[in-house]
Amino acid sequence: MCGRYTLTVTKEAALERFDLDDAEVEIAPRYNIAPTQKVAVVYDESPRTLSQARWGLVPSWSKTGPSAGQPLINARVETLLEKPSFRNIFRARRCFVLCDGFYEWQRNPDGTTIPYRATLADGAPFALAGLWDEWTSPEGEVIRSCTVITTEANDLLAPLHHRMAVILRREIEKQWLGKGKPDELMGLLTAYPASEMRVYPVSKAVNTVKRDDAELIAEVEPPIRQAALF
């Protein structure tokens, strides 16, 4: 799954990396991005523009909007074409979420957890496959929101969690935003190779959503019993 992540680059660096022409929003380095917050995205309808969305999908047909229970922060690739919240927007409203690392927590037998950060091996920013929708309140307020697609974890992430966010290879980012057939698009949603990623332990300070500083992504010494995990 993906429930907390980072984007630590500047707006200028993001525009260059993702081949974007302009930005509708300002962004600054973030170290602990959480559900319901505004996040940096690129929409299929404007593939050369840096935009933003609320993280946690609010379907256009929702009667209660963002106040309706647990936000849909993730969408399982296996059910994209089945669930009402995803099947229509999969065909018409795709996006990717800008990211350069995400957190996962390993649960120990005693119930305690250890946070880890997953990145590409070279530390470069990457795109998470996502879907978006637009909900309008009875008062006319428009909320654009998104969800991150997940798949089965690769061998590197599996010891931490059985799911992982779908990372799009750089060469298929624009294809994901294009007008492909459903089976072609589904073929893009695979687990990123474990050999091209890195995972390392970080401070438990990341557990606190209000913390958002560079200390959170610093590598720490793992507990002795976990030292041989990776």
Give a description of the structure.
The chain is 11% helix and 34% strand. The chain is mostly beta strands. It is globular. The strands form two sheets. A five-stranded antiparallel β-sheet has the order 3-1-8-9-14, with no helix packed on it. A five-stranded mixed barrel has the order 4-5-11-10-7. A hairpin with a 5-residue loop joins strand 10 (126-136) and strand 11 (142-152). The longest helix has 9 residues, at 84-92. The protein has a single domain (5-226), classed as hypothetical protein yedk fold (Alpha-Beta Complex). It has four helices and 14 strands.
Topology, element by element:
Blueprint: E1 5-7, H1 11-17, E2 22-23, E3 30-33, E4 38-43, E5 49-55, E6 74-76, H2 84-92, E7 94-99, E8 101-107, E9 113-120, E10 126-136, E11 142-152, E12 163-165, E13 167-168, H3 173-177, H4 182-186, E14 197-201
Parallel strand pairs: 2-5, 5-11, 6-11
Antiparallel strand pairs: 1-3, 1-8, 4-5, 4-7, 7-10, 8-9, 9-14, 10-11, 10-13, 11-12
